[in-house]
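Hi F.,

I've been meaning to write this up properly since the lab meeting, where we talked about keeping a consistent format for the predictions we share between groups. The idea is simple: the sequence comes first, exactly as it goes in, then the structure tokens exactly as they come out, then a line or two of notes. No screenshots and no reformatting. I'm using this chain as the first example so we have something concrete to point to.
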Amino acid sequence: MKAGQLRWGILGPANIARRNWLAIRLSGNGTLVAVASRHLARAQAFIAECQADAPFDPAPRALGSYAELLASADVDAVYIPLPTGVRKEWVLRAAAAGKHIVCEKPCAPNAADLREMLVACAHHRVQFMDGVMFRHGARLARMRTALDDTGSVGQLRRVTSSFTFAGSPEFFRGNIRTQAALEPLGCLGDLGWYCVQFALWAAGWRLPREVTGRLLATHGGVPAELSGELVFDDQLSAGFDCSFLRANQQWAYLAGTEGALRVDDFVLPFAGDKTEFELRSAEFRRCGCDFRMEPRVRRVSVDGHGHGHATAPETNLFRNFAAQVLRCSAPNESWPDIALKTQQVVDSCLTSARAGGRPVMPAG
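Output, unedited:
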């Protein structure tokens, strides 16, 4: 391992890997060594396109197989954006090769597979983390401060979120997210994963005691629109919906006994050099026969770009991961635990939805 630099490889030139190419370049403590594809020409084309926009020096080399990348002695860590349906094999092989792993979400088709993946990572003492970027933005820490200050929100009682986009006809004809063999969780894995993880974050990473789900639409055997409900032990509940059939939304609303917190872009922050959220505490007044509801809104801005910058969440993800690996001999156990809890709740949502909304208790 090069001093001060984590050497990365990418398994599969997926579209999302372009964003993370830039994130590694901007991280300051990582460099990209190689990109592998089943077809060498595709890896070469991917590298040429990304080098033209965000060059590494030297340029990463193109490899014509994933196994060749995992055998490379100059690769310390891998980013794996392969389809969920085939990801388990390559996580297991990466762990056995001693490579640290950032794994796209959903991490696996089910929690049983993910447990096997995490056991392998622990056995080989490699770090595992899912690819959820919002956890690494400066805004999330500021939101936690607001939730914990007792006055802004008070006791948290309800978390609601929505993450949706309207897929084009081309999307439904050929995108892997609508193909059961490759992405069996559909919109729940692609979009709902973020909503579930946000709810678990708000709840202090506790598992709910009960989960229900409702399938609202399917396509190609996978969920295309789904809603879920999580109930925790302390009168906290969380609801979410995710969809491939509705216009872009990615909001979250956290309501408590004293007020509420709203964020309109919790997954992919809006463009700009700051990220924002609102604290709300509307006040009801009666003046004679006139009943009035007065808004009380405070907008909070947090320094840090929303994307494509050294301060962006995706860059922080790769910087934080590299810092953990470079400075610590033992893996951070909380990151794989977060991924597993998210997967357990996602599994429970789908199990309940396929059973007509029957309540399910996530396995601990």
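Notes:
The chain has two domains: 6-134+314-333, 138-304+342-354.
The mean pLDDT is 96.

If this format works for you, I'll send the rest the same way.

G.
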